[in-house]
Hints:
This protein is an alpha+beta fold.
Amino acid sequence: xxxxxxxxxxxxxxxxxxxxxxxxxxxxxxxxxxxxxxxxxxxxxxxxxxxxxxxxxxxxxxxxxxxxxxxxxxxxxxxxxxxxxxxxxxxxxxxxxxxxxxxxxxxxxxxxxxxxxxxxxxxxxxxxxxxxxxxxxxxxxxxxxxxxxxxxxxxxxxxxxxxxxxxxxxxxxxxxxxxxxxxxxxxxxxxxxxxxxxxxxxxxxxxxxxxxxxxxxxxxxxxxxxxxxxxxxxxxxxxxxxxxxxxxxxxxxxxxxxxxxxxxxxxxxxxxxxxxxxxxxxxxxxxxxxxxxxxxxxxxxxxxxxxxxxxxxxxxxxxxxxxxxxxxxxxxxxxxxxxxxxxxxxxxxxxxxxxxxxxxxxxxxxxxxxxxxxxxxxxxxxxxxxxxxxxxxxxxxxxxxxxxxxxxxxxxxxxxxxxxxxxxxxxxxxxxxxxxxxxxxxxxxxxxxxxxxxxxxxxxxxxxxxxxxxxxxxxxxxxxxxxxxxxxxxxxxxxxxxxxxxxxxxxxxxxxxxxxxxxxxxxxxxxxxxxxxxxxxxxxxxxxxxxxxxxxxxxxxxxxxxxxxxxxxxxxxxxxxxxxxxxxxxxxxxxxxxxxxxxxxxxxxxxxxxxxxxxxxxxxxxxxxxxxxxxxxxxxxxxxxxxxxxxxxxxxxxxxxxxxxxxxxxxxxxxxxxxxxxxxxxxxxxxxxxxxxxxxxxxxxxxxxxxxxxxxxxxxxxxxxxxxxxxxxxxxxxxxxxxxxxxxxxxxxxxxxxxxxxxxxxxxxxxxxxxxxxxxxxxxxxxxxxxxxxxxxxxxxxxxxxxxxxxxxxxxxxxxxxxxxxxxxxxxxxxxxxxxxxxxxxxxxxxxxxxxxxxxxxxxxxxxxxxxxxxxxxxxxxxxxxxxxxxxxxxxxxxxxxxxxxxxxxxx
Length: 908
């Protein structure tokens, strides 16, 4: 009996596999499997993301605690520094500026405590102590010191020490912090509590407009040693001042935290709560704002010494989460999605493969049909003719629009190249063929030509012919060109009309130019009348620009003023310093009126005064056609008036000097009386002392602890002789000073005798040595040897040296700047040279030329009259000498006086 046969030769396992495959390639099965796999992937992503966020939150909390600990430790270090400074005052109540500087230098703030702006001491000053305090600080070498802001108040505090004493901290020198509300509250709390106190948000006096930051201060009160300070009332009575430290907030946070907060964004607010008006430090450590919403955020109220507090707002940056942790959930999700999508695509691909193939064929057919329709519609809408030239075959396709553009029906134009070239205008054909050849050879990117083409009715129209090669052989020669024809006849007609209008306008311009030339000739005839007039005359047109200026304009306004023709009239004849006069003249002219006045200007380094008249000029019809100006030089008259005033001032000054001589003689007499008394009695006292020494020696031998005037005898035995010597030296010094003042104030004996220049200089130095010593500790004197005498007045020459030394002393900004005085002989000219050089603030270049002018001074706000250098210059001129000035801003000024030697004279 034969065995049963299976209908499917592949067997049951193969049939089951085929049925399973048939189920899997169904679209519904693919979507079910995709949904289940997506759910599994989402669950895996959720678990990994939750674990990463838990670790990030723990790390964020630890980092914020670490930042708070760093701030708290650094603030404790700063307060320890303040306590050390207060201890310095407790050990020695009178701590000098140098001692404070050495103390701060020993702390090495910049290296050991980055972020602190400085360490200072502010002194409490009662109103009755203010003047003495300012005088004492100025005597230390700060002549411009004052307590700021000015004004009367019941209590003053002044910053007297602040190290390092750099340019930024110098801005706070002398500032009264008690005048500002936030600082005053912190200072009062520190004083009443006797403990360090942190102030609220302030803007430090040290701040400028560049890199402006918010800040705060820490105060520690300093009480006078030996006074009780147990209660608030006792502490107020014993308060001597405050040791304090200013902080720029962002510099402080950078110094404290460094790179500790690279993965955080920290905002610090003054007090409790988040308020943008109390923001202290935005975006520490940088001002960059983290992108997007913060991952985590924490707000902490941070307690400070003295009860003050800050609000710290931490934002976690993306850097808080490591790249591996941050990408782990995404990696899990991405891997799951990739697997899900691959599985879905495989199943869906099997089911849709045949359907996609049929759909692609259908779409390609439909797209091709639509492309052909769009191309045809585009060509019809544009209205341009299209041509397609097969160069190898010599055949050209002309579209129906191309043919209709020339008035032909479709069947009336063939496909040869001659259909086109035979219709091109003969005058244009050679040029057009050359342009075509350029493109065929590949020497141009596109073919473009404007030429005329004949229509069916025989007329010619202008065509814009454009084309491009779309196929080329290996040698670069074009095989096929495609292009368009555009009718531009209307554009060409418009261009011809525009050319005609331009030609007409040019003719009119030439006519107008001829008219203007005739008018200009007439103006030149009129201007010839003014050529010889010494006054400066300028005439302008209706546009207020100068058309004529006589030669006197260059003489009156200077060659540097440049050509006048074509320049705005008022700007040319009014200097920049006469803005008010220029505005008044402009207003008068606007009303049709004339204006007159006096203006001053600088011409070739000299000041000139001009009597100015500006008036409108009317034409033949009475309408204004411009205006004219006349400037008459009245400098000589003004100088005569100035010289008269100078002589008057010099007479007044001479009278003052005579009165000063009388006063000096009286003062010298009054000073000499007590000086003579001391001088006469000092030898008597020395005799008493010599007789008493043996007795006192015996007493000291019997009593080893013997004291005289509460001073041990051995010390007294050495001290008293030195005291007597000091008395004698002091009396001699008083007599020399009085003698010098009498000599300086004594009436002038005349200047017809030979004088020793070195002796004149020594006498002037003796008179001014105290004024010079107050200004600098670096004065040097160098006197030349064997100088010949100078013929003149001892007293007037002495007055020159005294004035130059006083001017040099007043020019020094600080006591470390130097003054040098020297005398020498110039072997080339045989003249004596007196030089006074200072390292002062210098003189601007524009003022150097005016030094010595009567009443000109650069120190008007300091009481200067402008007569000192004027009188000096006159004295030197009277002696046949010369004075020169050289100065560099910020580096100093050198004054050189050249005096002729007395012929064959011997110094008196």
